[in-house]
Amino acid sequence: MGSAEFLTQLPAALATLATLAVLAAAVFGRATHADRDIDIDIDIGIQGLQTAERELAAQIEDLLPQTQCGQCGHPGCRPYARAVAAGEPFNKCPPGGHATIAAIADLLGTPPLALDPEHGREGPKLVAYIREAECIGCTKCLPACPVDAILGAPRQMHTVIAAECTGCDLCVEPCPVDCIEMIPAPVRSALMARDQRPPVAA
Amino acid sequence: MSPARTFPGGILLPAHKHASSATPIRTPALPPELFLSLGDATPLVAVGDPVLKGQLLAAAGSDGLPVHAPTSGHVARIEFAPRAEVPGHRAVLIPDGAERWCERTPVNPATRTLPELLAAVRAAGIVGLGGGGFPTDIKLAPTHPIDTLVINGMECEPYITADDRLMREEAGAIVAGMRLAARLLGDPARILVGIEDDKPEAAAAMTAALAVADDPREIVIVVLPSRYPAGGERQLIQLLTGRQVPSGGLPRDVGVVCFNVGTLYALHRALALDEPLLSRIVTIAGGACREPANYRALLGTPVAHLLAASSYQPARCEQLLLGGPMMGIPLDDVQAPVTKTTHCILAATAAELPPARQPQPCIRCGLCADVCPASLLPQQLLRHAVARDHRQLERHHLLDCIDCGACAYVCPSAIPLVDHYRAAKAEVRALRAERGAADQARRRFEAHQARVARQSGERSARHAGLIGTSADHDAPASAPVDAAPVATDLLEQALARAGAATPRRAPLERALSAAENRIAQLETQLAALDATATEAQRNGLRARLEQARLDGDLARQRLLALPAEPSPTPDGNPQ
Ligand code: SF4
Ligand code: SF4
Ligand code: SF4
Ligand code: SF4
Questions:
Q1: Atom of ligand 3 nearest to the CA of B403
Q2: 575 residues of chain B, pLDDT tens digit each
Q3: CA–CA separation, B191 and B222 (whole Å)
Q4: Residue B383, class by beta-carbon neighbours within 10 Å (0-12 exposed, 13-18 middle, 19+ buried)?
Q5: Nearest CA to ligand 4 atom 4
Q6: What is the complex's ipTM, to 2 decimals?
Q7: Which residue's CA is minimally distant from atom 2 of ligand 3?
Q8: Of B260, B262, B271, B257, nearest to B142 (Cα)?
Q9: How far does residue B88's CA lie from ligand 3's centre (Å)?
Q10: What is the rounded distance in angstroms from the CA atom of residue B111 to the CA atom of residue B115?
Q11: Which atom of ligand 1 is nearest to the CA of A68?
Q12: In terms of CA atoms, which chain A residue is nearest residue B444?
């Protein structure tokens, strides 16, 4: 749709959003990340303000690993970036680990924090692997994948496109026969033996 | 004429070439086993299968390179090679000694179309044999108009004489390959062949072969003074044409494509004789070999086999290098196979390559910057490499460093500068790759959300009996308020969860039991590993075990957190 058309529809859209937010709050019975994100967007939409915060969120988002796993408690990396821009602690992303925390601290000009163990531990990068002989073709894992990295159809064997898999782990639980496991990702950009750092002179 | 035909920096080095350039290229006896790295190529043979020389063993993987059988025999094993340069699977071929060829159907290249020729080059698995290892068919299908074809016969690194010998013995085939390359590149106006002045026999052989070929184009053999690294691709192009390949660019950006003479030889054999790339010339040199020489080595030949043919004396060897004295890397496994990029094995005595001195702090003498052929500032790069300041490293054009080692050679503080740059380059590349993967994941996530939003929009419109136009359906996806799709998606999920009759206990219990099974399985596997198991295998199993434990713990915790009875209160946090 054109932008003029969008503007005329904006109030209606925002009203819908607001209703959704209220509904969501009612369903969850408490303030959640979801309605908070909606709040942020309504603010931006109505006032056209907070551009600085938005700008910051975009910069933070660029530093996140884009695993989209939700371990930070937000539905994806962008909402987490927004929350951090709005002041939430930036130590909740285990896939990014210490490197990401350090990068965000750098950006914000604050000292880095230790990774919050509440949200998980930093580990090696993983990819999902479907033991294809056991897959019953139920398609339950397909909608769970945030990056549509699983290929399959009803009653057909499914498989993970390893190059697109972010290792978020979200597909493991929905599988009724537990044929999906997370295995260490092949180290494609591995430092070869010849690329080891030499010692530095004192 | 064009601008300064010289390149900045460079050093004069003792050549040490006569020992191995005096004797003709030798054909070594067949080794007892050949080791062929498969990478992610798809094997087309099974263990035990008999294979013929030149037969396709594995279809090209992500690097676009097929794997062929260098000789006839049978596939003894397909095994994991953790110590290989790039750890991965490899096929082990036991030669039968008969050298029986598979069927070849040579067609006169002059009668074939360019796409056919390119496909044949790809199928032959040819890469740049000068050391780059870049697939030749990609270079031969340039995206830019090419007016100059540069042929690299410089071989400027000390000790190495593989190209020298090849030019002396096979100049005719090299010239034939050169003309094929020229045709594939759309007949560039001129062909410039660069040869260093310490190889007069090679230059003479090439001149004679060109006279026979009688090509109407402007083909010039330029004999250039020896100065290291004049054989670097960018340096040679600058020497011959005066053109400077831009930082981060490729020779084709300035209308040039450059091939090594060995590559042209392979090109000729592939197109005129229908032979895939099965062997290459390898120089075995250094004072720890009593008979330094060049070998026509089958790919996959263990280095030890060639060393033995040159009467290698391990006791005298101070440093064994894969490559020459300047750019070579330490070779700690003499069973490592010859690959398409192995051009030299240097077994140097302590007199030739004294053990590295203890590095001292940089005294900012600036010698390194004086000799750098890429006009970099090595001491700045060193500082940023040590600090792992990747932004500064990129700003100082770290990726333009060609690893020539001139800076480390002149450094009075004996700082192994190149080793620092190699490590830093690997890190910068890894970071870039990670960044690229993250951007890709974000695009896919956004597309996923847009699709989910569209579908749920369609569904709710249907439920409400509303008439939805397609414009409405697209609205959430394209609207600038980009949290809208997330919101609908989440809400829908939440409602679905709240409405579901059973809470999420069953899948959690399944996850827990699966994790427990996996733990048990992995523990047995780990215990069953014997002494021959490699550290990589062990670590792989340990990592999986650790992950299974984490999965189990998580499932257990979440089970405990569940309310005792099924209740409509959903778990608000997406996990
Ligand atoms: S934990 Fe990190 S990777 Fe996962 S969704 Fe949150 S920000 Fe993205
Ligand atoms: S395949 Fe599984 S682990 Fe990989 S991105 Fe999709 S949901 Fe995540
Ligand atoms: S190794 Fe790199 S930095 Fe050192 S002289 Fe060669 S191109 Fe310059
Ligand atoms: S040559 Fe060595 S000591 Fe001199 S400036 Fe370069 S790094 Fe420092």
A1: 1
A2: 444 578 888 999 998 999 899 999 999 999 999 999 988 888 999 999 999 999 999 998 888 899 999 999 999 999 887 776 666 789 999 999 999 999 999 889 989 999 999 999 999 999 999 877 889 999 998 788 999 999 999 999 999 999 999 999 999 999 999 999 999 999 999 999 999 999 999 999 999 999 888 778 889 999 999 999 999 999 999 999 999 999 888 999 999 999 999 999 999 999 999 999 999 999 999 999 999 999 999 999 999 999 999 999 999 999 999 999 999 989 988 999 999 999 999 999 999 998 888 999 999 999 999 999 999 999 999 999 988 888 889 889 999 999 999 999 999 999 999 999 998 998 888 888 888 889 999 999 999 988 888 888 888 777 776 544 444 444 443 333 333 344 445 445 544 544 443 446 766 777 787 778 778 878 887 887 777 777 777 777 787 788 778 878 887 888 887 766 444 444 444 43
A3: 10
A4: middle
A5: B365
A6: 0.70
A7: B401
A8: B257
A9: 31
A10: 12
A11: 5
A12: A147
CA distance B568 to B376: 66
- How is residue A157 written in tokens? 């064997």
Show the beta-strand stretches assigned E in A29-172: 126-130, 150-151, 159-160
Instruction: Give pTM, 2 decimals.
Output: 0.70
The residue written with tokens 């700045």 in the block is: B380
Are A1 and B543 an interchain contact pair (Cβ–Cβ within 8 Å)? no
Q: Which candidate from A37, A68, A71 shows the least CB-CB separation from B483?
A: A37
User: Which residues in chain A have Cβ-Cβ distances shorter than 8 Å to B483?
Assistant: 37-38, 40-41, 79
Domain ranges of chain B: 18-24+104-272, 31-95, 365-469+491-502, 503-562
A118 Cβ under 8 Å from any chain B Cβ: no
> Which residues does B356 contact at the CB level (< 8 Å), separation at least 6?
B414, B416
Question: Which structural domains are found in chain A, ordered by start?
Answer: 3-57 (no CATH), 64-119 (no CATH), 124-186 (3.30.70.20)
Q: In what order do the strands lie in the sheet with B148-153?
A: B218-224, B190-196, B148-153, B256-260
Let me know if the fold of B18-24+104-272 is the same as that of B31-95: no
Residue B463, C-beta contacts closer than 8 angstroms, at least 6 positions apart: none
Q: Which atom of ligand 1 is least distant from the CA of A67?
A: 3
Q: Which CATH superfamily is domain B18-24+104-272 in?
A: NADH-ubiquinone oxidoreductase 51kDa subunit (3.40.50.11540)
Chain A residues whose CB is inside 8 A of the B452 CB are: 143
B156 in Cβ contact with B231 (< 8 Å): yes
B31-95: CATH number: 2.40.50.100
Q: Given the DSSP bridges, would you call strands A180-184 and A126-130 parallel, antiparallel or unpaired?
A: antiparallel
Tell me the torsion sign for CA atoms B55, B60, B64, B70.
Answer: negative
Q: Given an 8 Å threshold on Cβ–Cβ distance, is B570 in contact with A147?
A: no
Test the B interface: residue of A37, A194, A196 with most B CBs within 10 Å: A194
State which of B358, B360, B368, B410 you would mutate to test the pocket of ligand 4, scoring each by most atoms of that ligand within 8 A of its C-beta. B368
Which of A13, A126, A148 is nearest residue B448 as measured by Cβ atoms?
A148
**Rounded alpha-carbon distances, angstroms, from residue A133 to A157, B336, B507:** 8, 36, 20
Structure tokens belonging to residue A66: 């884009």
| Residue position matching structure tokens 């260093």 | B196
Q: How far apart are CA A108 and CA B206, in angstroms?
A: 63
A70 lines ligand 1 (CB under 6 A): yes
